[in-house]
Design a protein that fits this description.
The structure holds two protein chains of two kinds.
Chain A lengths: L6 E5 L16 H5 L7 E9 L29 E4 L7 E22 L43 H6 L3 E5 L6 E3 L4 E3 L4 E14 L14 E6 L7 E13 L1
Antiparallel strand pairs in A: 1-2, 2-4, 3-4, 4-5, 4-8, 5-10, 6-7, 8-9, 8-10
Chain B lengths: L7 H12 L20 H4 L7 E12 L3 E6 L5 H5 L5 E12 L7 E2 L20 E2 L3 E5 L5 E7 L2 E2 L5 E2 L6 E6 L7 E11 L15 E12 L9 E6 L14 E16 L21 E13 L7 E5 L6 E5 L13 H12 L9 E5 L5 E5 L8 E5 L13 E4 L5 E6 L1 E6 L4 E4 L6
Antiparallel strand pairs in B: 1-3, 1-6, 1-7, 2-3, 3-11, 4-5, 7-10, 8-9, 10-13, 11-12, 12-14, 13-14, 14-15, 15-20, 15-21, 16-17, 17-24, 18-19, 20-23, 21-22
The chains are: A mainly beta, B mainly beta.
């Protein structure tokens, strides 16, 4: 029983114009002006077994139109894992609901990972372990980076590499002690409800009755009426292949 | 439609970055300012060997009112009769921030984002850094995610090498980072009678609020990174080693730094369920100069696996015993291959070389001459190379005025080798 709403919004500076009415297909000329000049922003909302306000289906306060309940020992809101050659053994995550909002991630490209393009670049942080332990060397002791044969080549080699950069908009973080409320923790918002985990031995263990579960968990916020935990991410993340 | 609105080069860059795909030549173009297109030669060095993830000036902070709640259960009647109560754990305001010290560097859960409210000249007195971690994982020393093959002794006691090496999927942490500050404040609540946090009648009768701060790095002092590996285990028979192969995990835990656990609150602190406490900035239980390496599992003969326990829903997390199969008795070559690799790194089954040392009390003791340091864990609380009695070396307690009231000294566990480990949950049936 999974209901997911995925909203993937990509914004870019486009010269194309869109009709105000109904949805229309784009032709090649509509897309020709897109240069990605200002990068890409991603926003995502994912909801599984949970109402828009972050309340598990069936719990007081959740919209009733979904017609199911994630509350109680044998509810249908579950997922299960079974490993190879462990037939008929299921690790069941029982009574789970999740809502996740990623409000903004900025995507950009860094052509070269140099001190100028990477704030906080520090040569002293290089992996200088011997080839047999070094992440950039293979089991034969050969460097896997371009223009690299010994450990001391690594910093120069990396500086010639391109990377994808992820960052988030700056936020002002605050806490009001008179109302016990937080503000500014808006990069990511999460609401999670998990009744618990159970190991069940049965061919259909993923849907079999749950005798009992171990260790439930919830993620949320103590503020009345706010079911979403607020998380702030700041800084730059670089992803590159080698 | 093109990814990023770019032709050729960028799309391939994305594919290369995300999937390690090989590059094929085609023309790129440059855009002045803003996002820049990549030239093909810029991608020519990418071989698809691995995916690297680096983070600079990184900073993660949950709202001080946001929680992760490990929910408790009402005990069964027999447990209640024996005096047991329900217990719940709350972790609020988890923060992963910069470990810098000095003016303008630190703050508390009460004033996130604004420096002050604690003594900023000492890292453990402020739970939150105002800035990010400069090199959380440097681009020169990033997290590496890859599928890789390693030589090693397998479950059958066979040394696998060359074209016969098993594959593992692994995430390798950095071997050097700037120090970060990891902190949260928490509640242990006893006797909670309901699930509604908004209803005071549901609150338990017992509540302990605490603060936990680690100022450290996910590496050992000598620069070993933390590593996690996922693999298919090879537990079958000699003819078909993967007959019963299943999912296994190997984890090499590495952590170094200083730690503080405190419960003392300032006068005027709310001292109420769910309200962010105003913790005293000095009081607490301190561990300085901690250095820990704990290898859990070994390629390719020992892994962490999950199994069910009975029919109650409980489960077992098992670190499989080394040399577990029926045919591997002490005189078999397979047994010797595995045991001698585990203890001294010999890959040919040869017995470990020994040496005789004389202990301070005059006894002669035979020990392994060159132990395998990759399977040998340690936990050190305190710096054993410096003054053991210095109040900030090792384990100590401080009062509200920052006086060291008790110094327990330094302590360590060395030569920690885990041949097998079984952890069974017991609470699911209630």
């Amino acid at each position: 029983m999974i209901r997911a709403v995925i909203l993937l919004l990509a914004f870019w500076v486009a010269q194309a114009s869109f009709p105000a009415y109904s949805m229309q297909p784009l032709d090649d000329t509509d897309m020709a002006g897109i240069t990605g000049y200002e990068g890409v922003a991603l926003a995502l909302e994912l909801r599984v077994n949970m109402s828009e306000s972050g309340v598990p289906l069936g719990m007081a306060g959740a919209a009733s139109e979904y017609g199911t309940s994630c509350i109680g020992i044998n509810n249908p809101c579950r997922w299960a894992l079974s490993f190879a050659n462990r037939d008929n053994v299921w690790l069941v995550f029982n009574g789970w609901s999740l809502a996740l909002r990623v409000n903004d991630i900025f995507l950009d490209v860094v052509p070269e990972l140099t001190p100028l393009s990477v704030p906080g670049f520090n040569l002293a942080m290089a992996d200088d372990r011997v080839p047999s332990d070094n992440r950039f060397f293979n089991v034969n002791g050969e460097c896997m980076l371009a223009n690299c044969s010994v450990v001391s080549d690594i910093p120069t080699s990396i500086q010639g590499m391109p990377a994808m950069k992820l960052s988030t908009p700056a936020t002002t973080l605050a806490y009001d002690s008179s109302t016990n409320t937080s503000s500014g923790f808006t990069n990511t918002q999460v609401s999670l409800y998990l009744d618990g985990v159970a190991a069940i031995t049965a061919p259909d263990g993923y849907s079999a009755p749950v005798p009992g579960t171990f260790m439930g968990a919830q993620i949320g916020d103590i503020q009345a009426g706010n079911n979403f935990a607020g998380w702030a991410f700041q800084g730059d993340v670089y992803v590159f292949g080698y | 439609m093109r990814i990023l609105g770019f032709p050729g080069a960028s799309r391939r860059f994305f594919m290369t970055v995300l999937f390690g795909a090989a590059l094929t030549p085609a023309a790129g173009f440059a855009v002045p300012g803003g996002m820049v297109a990549l030239e093909d030669e810029e991608m020519a060095g990418v071989s698809g060997a691995g995916l690297a993830i680096a983070a600079h000036n990184f900073h993660f902070q949950a709202a001080p009112t946001s929680y992760i709640w490990i929910t408790g259960r009402q005990p069964d009647p027999a447990a209640i009769a024996a005096g047991w109560n329900r217990g719940d754990l709350f972790y609020y305001g988890t923060a992963w921030t910069g470990g810098q010290t000095g003016p303008g560097t630190g703050t508390t859960f009460h004033e996130p984002g604004v420096a002050g409210g604690c003594n900023q000249n000492e890292a453990l007195r402020c739970p939150i850094g105002v800035s990010g971690v400069p090199s959380f994982a440097s681009v020169l020393n990033p997290y590496v995610f890859r599928v890789y093959e390693y030589p090693g002794v397998d479950y059958q006691g066979m040394y696998r090498q060359g074209s016969n090496m098993p594959s593992v999927m692994e995430l390798i942490g950095p071997s050097k980072t700037d120090r970060w500050r990891w902190s949260f404040w928490g509640e242990i609540e006893v006797g909670r009678s309901g699930t509604s946090l908004g209803n005071p009648a549901d609150n338990g009768s017992g509540l302990l609020q605490s603060q936990t701060i680690i100022h450290g790095s996910p590496t050992t002092t000598d620069g070993r990174p933390a590593v996690i590996r996922y693999l298919r285990t090879q537990q079958g028979n000699g003819g078909n080693p993967s007959a019963d192969g299943s999912f296994g995990i190997i984890y090499e835990s590495a952590l170094s730094g200083d730690f503080r656990f405190s419960v003392g609150q300032n006068f005027g602190s709310p001292d109420e369920k769910g309200w962010v406490p105003h913790f005293n900035d000095a009081e607490g239980f301190y561990f300085h100069n901690v250095d820990a390496f704990i290898p859990i599992g070994r390629m390719h003969y020992q892994t962490l696996q999950l199994e069910p326990s009975g029919t109650t829903g409980d489960f077992i997390i098992r670190l499989t015993p080394i040399a577990p199969t029926a045919s591997q008795n002490q005189s078999s070559l397979a047994f010797q291959m595995i045991y001698n690799e585990f203890y001294c790194g010999n890959i040919d089954g040869a017995a470990c070389a020994t040496t005789t040392v004389t202990t301070p009390d005059g006894n002669n003791v035979v020990k392994i001459q060159n132990p395998n340091v990759e399977t040998q864990g340690y936990i050190r609380w305190g710096d054993f190379s410096s003054n053991f009695t210095a109040p900030d070396n090792g384990i100590s307690f401080r009062d509200r005025d920052n006086n060291v009231t008790r110094h327990l000294g330094v302590s360590r566990i060395e030569g920690l080798r885990i041949q097998s480990l079984t952890l069974t949950t017991q609470g699911a049936g209630s």
